[in-house]
Amino acid sequence: LGIPYGVVATAPSMDGYASTGAAMIWEGMKITYSAKVPYAILADTKVLANSPIEMIKAGYGDIIGKYSALNDWKLSSLLTGEYICDFIYDLTYDCILKVRSLAKGLLTQDEESVKALMEALVLVGIAMAFAGSSRPASGSEHHYSHYFEIVGILDGTEYFPHGIDVAYSTIETCKIREAVINATPKKFNF
Known about the structure:
By secondary structure, this protein is mostly helical. The protein has helices at residues 45-49, 53-64, 66-80, 86-100, 103-107, 111-131, 140-155, 162-183, and strands spanning 6-9, 21-26, 29-34, 40-43. The protein has a two-stranded parallel sheet. The longest helix is centred in the last third of the chain and has 22 residues, at 162-183. It is globular, with a radius of gyration of 17 Å.
């Protein structure tokens, strides 16, 4: 509707806070609607650090999933000539590297580690807005994740939080990529 809005974050669980896509369950199906970037994002680090540990793990997993998303973006560029913005790519990759080193602090719900995770999640959301798509943050790992979530919704069964699904799916998509690379004739130089 074009109405300015703000977000109050209560858990560092995903990168959608600053995204132009609003993912939600609507009439029993997971749907992403186009949205504008929020006017403000408020996040109290004490609240974030005291959020359920599964939500913190989900945020970590969502960031780690960017390895897969960035690989898919590069692969698409090689195969189809899709444009890659180096600034957006590097911004996202820097977020991965920063968050990867936070694992121990996140498991103890260290406030500074959680703050850094939240900053990375917001930056990746901004990167998606810059790109005009979810490309820097979502690839084949998110396709897997959305499949598991939709099956859970349709079957009425419990499923993992989004970012935890993304982390598991990142491992599986990495295995697929490695198999493709190993089966590819060397003349393609992936």
